[in-house]
Structure formats: structure tokens, C-alpha cells
TrEMBL record, chains A, B:
It holds the Pfam family TP_methylase. The keyword Methyltransferase applies. One of its GO terms (molecular function) is methyltransferase activity. Keywords: Cobalamin biosynthesis, Methyltransferase, S-adenosyl-L-methionine, Transferase. InterPro entries: 4pyrrol_Mease (IPR000878), 4pyrrol_Methylase_sf (IPR035996), 4pyrrole_Mease_sub1 (IPR014777), 4pyrrole_Mease_sub2 (IPR014776), Cbl_synth_CobJ/CibH_dom (IPR006363), Precorrin_MeTrfase (IPR051810). Residues 5-213 form the Tetrapyrrole methylase domain. This is Precorrin-3B C17-methyltransferase. The lineage of its organism: Bacteria, Pseudomonadati, Pseudomonadota, Alphaproteobacteria, Hyphomicrobiales. SUPFAM superfamilies: Tetrapyrrole methylase (SSF53790). It comes from the Bacteria. The keyword S-adenosyl-L-methionine applies. One of its GO terms (biological process) is methylation. Pathway: Cofactor biosynthesis; adenosylcobalamin biosynthesis.
Amino acid sequence: MTGRLAVIGLGPGEPRHRTAEAEAELAGAEAIYGYGPYVDRVADRPGQMKIASDNRVELDRAGAALAHAARGGRVAMVSGGDPGVFAMASAVCEAIERGPAEWRSVDLAIVPGVTAMLALAAACGAPLGHDFCALSLSDNLKPWSLVETRLTAAASAGFVIALYNPISRARPWQLGAAFERLRGVLPSSVPVIFGRAVGRPDEQVTITTLGDADPQKADMSTLVIVGSAETRIIERPGLPPLVYAPRSAGGA
Amino acid sequence: MTGRLAVIGLGPGEPRHRTAEAEAELAGAEAIYGYGPYVDRVADRPGQMKIASDNRVELDRAGAALAHAARGGRVAMVSGGDPGVFAMASAVCEAIERGPAEWRSVDLAIVPGVTAMLALAAACGAPLGHDFCALSLSDNLKPWSLVETRLTAAASAGFVIALYNPISRARPWQLGAAFERLRGVLPSSVPVIFGRAVGRPDEQVTITTLGDADPQKADMSTLVIVGSAETRIIERPGLPPLVYAPRSAGGA
């Protein structure tokens, strides 16, 4: 007898950003696994168990949830944003590949959500309106040289770049190094957007330029979007400016 | 007196993929603008007007909605997926930049949604679980040479690539040319995922390889994800395989 594991995207913050499907899966689960702050976002329900863990034990957490589901449980795993973007869906797949055969038979549902870069883009206009990429600045699980290769390749080809995991206490210099790298490729006038706690009551969106971008303005709750040479800014009287990528590119 | 324009992402298909915020904005609008098939996805409400238009008149549609809001109306513009990803948010910003001054004072809300690549990724595992990019194959508004430059840059640097607008009646050869280009850079064993009508009752997800990928299998409702050399496939007894990007990359 096998159960079900739903890997659920909670979206960028408050419940209004969740899909109806995510709410239904949360309501039907008997246990909610996840990183503490994400588990805390789910309302308590009678009879529902919450199992919160630290953010550096993704594979252990995935294994615990899979084992619970394999015993017949109806289990949910929550991620902020979308579970498939630098979040728990990959860890769950990895655990399935490495784990006991019965985990492959678990009824696995991955429930997409609004990932942070989409929420930040919506908060300031449409900076991801043309070709873009998403890149994690964490070098915990990849060499920094690969981050540099990808930054240069993406910026040189004119992609707008969303930087996930830009900074943390254990990774204090990477965002500054990334800006330096990008300044070697892009004009210093390119818009850069810092979005902190997007979709939450303390949301803070700051628009600056690559020349002026200060890595100290980012923390673990920040997503950074680096525009391209084609990114435009519209000033508005009494309202924050809009940043957007035109629908046309390359002089077309 | 100015009104409000909400540019709303409907998500990939059925109402269960919509956020609570999108539903609330739809309910509060007196007029719904959009490309016909997206407008059709919104339930009729008494007193609410629907203004559907063709998919090649984005800027005209944006202008009509802005003019309506600038006259004091509560207006919604709907997009499939997320409005900020190859959709109406950019066209609205472009119309604001080019249009009369009073359009800059419209209360503009962009309501994010689950974009197609996230829905397709969720339907087959976690292929976007590490660094990836989103690239439109349409050469209506950019030169094809730029598409080729971006394909080569992204694939060479190890990004997984989501291909939006892969094919249409007016653009029949571009997807085949893109696969050819990618075969020059990536191993032919790299997984390729075709997702048709993802999130709708007739959803069809096909997993193949870059060597075998047949552009004729795509149509206007298809999104294509091209993996990287690190993308993995997990076979499951009696269930479709899972495709995923490991959390580590570059040998780390």
C-alpha cells in the first residue's frame, strides 16, 4: 500500500499567491514537511502534523517524506515560490533515484507555484518580458568558476538574469563578485532590481543600475534581477517607475 | 479620475492553477480584455464585459485597456500562464511608454501566475531544478541570428532551456533549426520534453532525446524543454519516468 507525496509551491508570500490546487493539496495532507519558515506559513489544521527542518538537510527531509508516503501516508512537502526552481522537487527526485525501490511507486504530485522572479517582475513592471535566465549564486553545490562562466555567457548573449540565493552569512562575497563580472560585459547603466520579501507585508523593491548596485543591500530574502542593454525604465508621476523588457530585441 | 488595470496571469490551464489574487482581480473587474482563447477561460459574470482580440494585436489591445482604465474603469487584461513571461505585461508597459501622459497615472497591478515552463516541469519531475533559461523561438520581433546566438550561449554554458513559441503556421522551420543548432553543442542523449496543453484535460507530455526530437511533434500549444548534459531520468514501474536536474552541477 503506497501513499501520496505532494510537493507544493506556496508562492512568494501570503496565501493570496497560492493556487487553488496548492490549497487543496494542503487541506488533504495528514503531514506537512518542509523548511521551518515555509511550514510556518501553512495554517494549523486539527489532526495535521507539521515536521519542520533546517534548510541544509534537503535530502534527509525528502527521504523522510518519501518513507512516510511509502508507508501509506498522505504527505505534503512545502517550498516557497515554485518547488521546481532551486527548491524541493529536485531533492525529492534525487532521493527517489538513490532510495529504496518502493519510493519509485509513491504517488508523486508536484504542484507548481509562482516563483520569486515572477513575483518580483510583477512588482516592478515586466523585466522578464523577453529572453531571460535564472541562475543560483550558491557555490555550495557547484564550483564558482561555473557560476562565472554562466554569468558571462548569459549577459553576453543579452539574457536578462534573475539571481537566486544571491547572498548568505556563509556566502558573503559572491554577489559582489557577480556584479564585478557582469560590469565587464554589460553597460553600467543596465537596470538592476533588488526585491526583498516580495509578496509579503514588508516587501521592498529597489531599482538601481549595475554601476551603482551594492551587494550589501541584499540578504537571504532578496532576489536580484539584472537587466540587459535593452531593458527600459518608465518614470511615472507619484508612482514608482516601471522596468520592462521590450517585446522586440536585437534591433528588430 | 483614473481607474485600475490589472494584468492577470491565468496560469497554464484550468482554474485550479489560478492564484487567489488572480480570482479576486477577475471578480472585481468590469471589463476583461485579452486574446480570445484566454478571455474564454474566464467564467461569465453578470455586468462584466469581455473584449476579445486576435493574438497579433498586443499593442492595440494594451492601448484599448489603458484608455478604458484612464477613463475611470476597473479593467482586467488576461494572459495565459504568467503575464510577465512573453505575454501582455511587456506590451502594456510599451503602450504606457509610447502613449498619452495620463496612462502613466493608471493604477497598474500585475498579478503573477504559473508560467508554462513551471507547469511542464512539475508534470514530469524537476527539469528546471538548476540553472535554466527561457527563450522565445519567435523571430517576429527579433532576428533569427540572435536566437541562434542565445541557443549556443545557453547550451554551451550548461543552462537547461525552455523554448516558448516553438512553432506556428507562420514559423514552421524554427524549432527544427533550433534542435540542429543544439545538436552541435550538446550530446544527442540530452533529454527533451514536449508538453502540449499542460494543465488542461488533453495534456500530453512526451520525453525524448535531442537526437530523436521531432519538431513536427510540436504545435502552437506546445512548450519544449531541452535538458543539459547533467539532466537525469528515473524509470518507475507502472508510472511515467521522472526527469530532473540534480541540485549539484559541474562535478561539485
